[in-house]
Amino acid sequence: MKLYKNDPSFYKKVFTLALPIALQSLITIGVNMLDTIMVGSLGENALSATSLANSFISIYQIFCMGLGMGASVLVSRFWGMKHSDDGSDEASVALRQTVCLMLRLTIFLAAVFASATLFAPHILMRMYTDDSAIIALGSIYFRYSVITYFFLGASLTTTIALRSVGQVKLPLLVSVGAFFVNLGANYAFIFGKFGMPRMEIAGAALGTLIARVFETTFIIGFLLLKDKRIGFSLKDMFMKTGSLIGEYIRISIPVLISDAILAFGNNSVAMVIGHLGAAFVAANAITAVTQQLSTVVIQGVSQAGAIVTGQTLGMGQKEKTMEQGWMFLGLGFALGALSAVFIMLVASPVINAYKNVSAETHSIAFELMSAISLIIVFQATNSIMTKGVLRGGGDTKILMLADNIFLWVLSIPLGLLAGFVFHVSAFWIYVALKSDQIVKTFWCIIRLRSGKWIKKITTGKTSLET
Predict the structure, then answer these.
(1) CB-based contacts of 367: which residues, under 8 Å, 6+ apart?
(2) Which of 53, 194, 317, 427 is the most buried (most CB within 10 A)?
(3) Where are the domains of the chain?
């Protein structure tokens, strides 16, 4: 199969979906960067506390991504079925049932995480650090983040569902608005501007909450009042979903479980970093924004890969799906190389922008940037395949096993050995912690070639043979 094919319509469709998603991610990262710089001006402890507290909040965010992307596999396939030659009314009902189940699970998870944050903030912080000053500051940040989970989850999962039916512009516009809301609220509450109280680290959490409320109001409002593609209304939250539960569990829940276990695995990585010292934690916080910036287009293409694959299979075009799979692999290699060049170009100006951190933190940050530029080539390729093409094909159970075996059997043990036994440099610690990205890339190529990743998905009543 060819990694590149002269098919302008394919690349146009991919990037029509991917670029708005990437721009939305870029705006989110911009907010995070401003947060980091603003909080960083309060000192290294405040920066570390915010970073570690957000490591726990990111577990919930990854859970929501799992819920949203799991539902997206079904939504995109049902959307393709609706637009096949024999469009199905059952597909329309199944589409709304999928969104209903997704939102119910999101609300449940938000309640679980909000309760943990409300009643055990100090315990959560101790998972990441033993520093009492950082624990105290992180607990303050948690106190103002309790309600945020409900708004974050609703907006994130609904956005993914809307993207799966081609609604990518509205979420982008809402993110632009949320960016300015967050910027203004953070500036006002962190530093006590515009007559607001100076709240410092608590102000950062409050600013994020205000932006999430803004974002959710518009996203959910659009879904319920304006969107005609999914056709979801408030009364559908109470619809019967029994006919689809079996299929939803089979396809979507493995994505949630996979991303959840990966979230805990990635948090184990954060715990390893957290116990390597304040300088390592701060350096990782500095490089985190660059890591995110370097992957925005990759993430966009990954999500586009899942959507395009699902829609193509929904229309019954299996051979075309296989061709597109290899073209997505080629895109992964190309975007990974471009991202590596980007990281090398921006490393110095980004690190030097942080004036209030130690020389040791600066040195570690440069080592981490070098390691990131190496790993990103592999990460880009397997991300587009695992989170995109293979997931869009319905291969969620195997992906659940593969993702977590590579992480827990390979990366985390190697990272622990590198950091606490052999005491190697920051460069090699990071490479060890991300070694799963390298191995998984070669596994993806083997899985793609086998064709076994293309699965049959049903509406609960009528099956679609692909």
Answers:
(1) 425, 426, 427, 430
(2) 53
(3) 8-456
For the beta carbon of residue 197, count every other beta carbon within 10 angstroms.
Answer: 10
> Mean pLDDT, 10 residues at a time, over the chain (466 residues)?
83 92 81 76 85 86 86 89 70 90 95 95 90 91 94 95 90 91 92 92 92 95 92 92 87 82 71 76 81 86 92 87 94 94 91 82 90 94 93 91 88 88 88 92 95 84 44
List of residues 6+ apart from 388 with CB closer than 8 A = 301, 302, 303, 304, 305, 306, 309, 328
Q: Would you say how long the chain is, in residues?
A: 466
Among all chains, which residue has been given the structure tokens 């501007």? 193
